[in-house]
Amino acid sequence: MSYKMMTKDELKRLRSELLSEYEEKKSQGLDLSMARGKPETSQLDLSMPMLEIIKPDTPFKGEDGMDMRNYGVLSGTAEAKRFFADMLDVSLENILIYGSASLALMYDTISRAYIKGICGSEPWSRLEKVKFLCPVPGYDRHFTICEFFGIEMISVPMDDNGPDMDMVERLVSCDPLIKGIWCVPKYSNPNGIVYSDEVVRRFAALKPAAEDFRIYWDNAYCIHHLYRDRQPEILNIVSECEKAGNPDMVYEFCSTSKITFPGSGVSAMAASKRNIDETVAMMSVQTISHDKLNQLRHVMFLPTQKALKEHMMKHADIMRPKFEAVLEMLEKELGGLGIASWTKPLGGYFISFDSMEGCAKKIVSMCKDAGIVMTDAGATYPYGNDPKDSNIRIAPSFPPIDELRKACEVFIICVKLASIEKILSI
Amino acid sequence: MSYKMMTKDELKRLRSELLSEYEEKKSQGLDLSMARGKPETSQLDLSMPMLEIIKPDTPFKGEDGMDMRNYGVLSGTAEAKRFFADMLDVSLENILIYGSASLALMYDTISRAYIKGICGSEPWSRLEKVKFLCPVPGYDRHFTICEFFGIEMISVPMDDNGPDMDMVERLVSCDPLIKGIWCVPKYSNPNGIVYSDEVVRRFAALKPAAEDFRIYWDNAYCIHHLYRDRQPEILNIVSECEKAGNPDMVYEFCSTSKITFPGSGVSAMAASKRNIDETVAMMSVQTISHDKLNQLRHVMFLPTQKALKEHMMKHADIMRPKFEAVLEMLEKELGGLGIASWTKPLGGYFISFDSMEGCAKKIVSMCKDAGIVMTDAGATYPYGNDPKDSNIRIAPSFPPIDELRKACEVFIICVKLASIEKILSI
User: In sequence order, what DSSP letters do the residues of B111-148 get, joined into one string?
Assistant: First the structure.
């Protein structure tokens, strides 16, 4: 029965029951987290063979003819390039291999635009203002990068197909200070949205006022499906941009962080040859070469796309029951109450939860008091400011499933309590 | 007999002999390099056990209590910090662990100063001009970083004790636009100088006009001795700066690039807690954590300072004969001719060679034509401009010793020829 149909007395009675449940949970001294998209231990175990894969008789001279144990091969080994080119369906010349995580690659890409500009345009550090579009809810670390560089963020709402493209087209075409847009096009963080073909095509066909406008396409979850039989595909942004006559308009990012080991993976950028060449030239000031031994480990451990896909299904088999457990509990406990909605993603690392307006901060803070760490309310919005104070990102991946259930129980109690308070206060 | 004492006819006769030797060398189709400070293959082999050191039963939870295979521990594992703290003789709180090479750490340190400033001072991007002092001859990649950020470089001459400290003190104390100085204090690149205690103390006691002046102390070769019995020590700059009341004035950099695998090592910064804290805070925007598995490999492979020292002596045993071969050939062929001088380093990766004025470019270019790649003449000076056109950096480490001898023979012929041309033209 919907809370809003209940009388004040019924609600108060319910609140008092829930409060004692909450106090009971609190007394358990829980210390659980649904805050960050971290793989759980058994997912890490999947890649253990990779750590021993290099043997004394491993050939260290790859196709480049260089000893992978020594300096050189700035843009990445040919073998690592092929791995990512196959994964992202682009040519070898469109791939740049980077360090152990794509976040640093994204930061550095923005940093270089700030210091030197993009393909001959004015460095952003010399401009009065630079603006980025940020589809919301989105990934907090993208927003933090923007804040660090003083980039003004403009929120763009999303629906089930991706960002509001009418708004994106209008803003991008009229404002030359808009230099970029952050996108997580597949299993978006946090709402699990998969951009539709139409959305991708409209992205590729943008007519930006700024010549140095780029789409920052963070394809972090491109092969991170939860199901064997439901694996939506998105259009290839690099080739779509090419077809639309905008070959240089996109930087695509990805990594093996959530394929093998977070923080000890290999990251890569896909982009036009012009963008790659420019990036490599600037990168040559910063480093001599990234860790080629780690590149070697990865291509030895996942030598084919088939091996990669099979490996990802092992991740899915660990992740899926957790997502389903959370979704089941939410449905059972909150379904029909009219106080919340949530996404049912087919991949990625998050469930996006929307409480009643004005309740998210309260819920997260109550969870914290009971020993359950959630991502900060508001974190999914630029400047940490969710105007409705309703979005909460749930990350079910890290805790073992029994702990996850415990955490979820507390979360549900907090949602109910905050909602009742809200309804009673209206 | 000194060339300058020879008659023109004698010189011409000698030149004609040398020219036919040169042509003979040229006809051999050599393809050798004495250009970069790269370890040779057998040095890489020394660290092969490290690549297999992580086993299925390795404990991945370190002192930090975090699984090293997952996200987290931004500033580096406790174990890796201890490794570098011991190596550089500083406290754990003075250490920050970085990625796979110190060049990126140095670039990023400059980059953060450019974007955000240092400890509250104005970001360099907003200043009309920023200047750095560059002891010469020096490391070309330091200079390239300065050029990238538009930093004006001022050359400071060096003697056997280090940079000209009268000049450094005078410039630093009067010009607030001077924000830094690059130093390779031990076995300096390329001249192998070890800074004297007095020089280090005068560095620590500098009274810079700029509050954000920092000493960029690239201690790349701190344990890279060539000899067992001659291992000069330098004073600890971090503690000297502290003693002198300038605790925040230095960033010290180092890495395991030339200890284990170049480009696949672990790098670190030593500095005051204030500098470290600021760097970590800014770094949190750029990355979640560096490669902790590689940190783990390193501390398992080199668990004690004793193990580290023994390991470095194996490098020395490979490097020393090469340095001695080159020095012997230079002495035998060029000694007493009055046309060149060179350093006799006790460690590091380079021999610094000075030809007669105006001959370095010619020598390097003749070497190239005969298939011997040397570091570009001038590269050891800011803007690639050696005002005397005399300094050439010799890197004996990479080629096997028989190839090194061949390369050196050609080099010597080129030095003689260019010198004769020079003398004849006066």
Answer: HHHHHH-STTSPPGGGSS--EEEEEES--HHHHHHHHH
